[in-house]
């Protein structure tokens, strides 16, 4: 199984949607809550080049946000990355 990291905020609906999609896929992932940790937010920006949540990484590949994750799923390219297809 790949190492999946999601930088997220508790109040973000896109973060909830990303979690739900990954839960449906049955994969484990780590959520890094940027709400209370400015250092994590800076780390997320440096790693992704973006300043919005969620930011999702599968192994060392930056997937992007929820819309990017959902587009990969619709195209059939997410399952191979997750090792589920």
Radius of gyration: 12 Å
Shape: globular
Largest sheet composition:
4 strands, mixed
Order of helices and strands: EHEHEEHH
**What's the helical proportion of residues?**
40-55%
Question: What does this protein look like?
Answer:
The protein has 85 residues and is α+β, with helices and mostly antiparallel strands. It has one domain (4-82): Glutaredoxin (3-Layer(aba) Sandwich). It has 4 helices and 4 strands; from the N terminus they run βαβαββαα. β1 (4-8), α1 (13-25) and β2 (30-33) form a beta-alpha-beta unit. α1 (13-25) runs parallel beside α3. The model has no long low-confidence stretch (mean pLDDT 97).
State the main characteristics.
alpha+beta; Glutaredoxin; 46% helix; globular; 85 residues; 4 helices
Note the topology.
Blueprint: E1 4-8, H1 13-25, E2 30-33, H2 38-48, E3 55-58, E4 61-64, H3 66-75, H4 78-82
Helix pairs in contact: 1-3
Can you summarize this structure?
The chain is α+β, with helices and mostly antiparallel strands and 85 residues long.
């Amino acid at each position: 199984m790949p190492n999946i990291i999601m930088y997220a905020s508790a109040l973000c609906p896109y973060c909830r949607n990303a979690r739900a999609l990954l839960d449906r896929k049955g994969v484990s992932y780590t959520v890094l809550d940027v709400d209370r940790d400015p250092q994590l937010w800076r780390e997320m920006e440096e790693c992704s080049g973006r300043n919005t949540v969620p930011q999702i990484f599968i192994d060392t590949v930056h997937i992007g946000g929820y819309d990017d994750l959902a587009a990969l799923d619709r195209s059939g390219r997410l399952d191979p990355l997750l090792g589920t297809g």
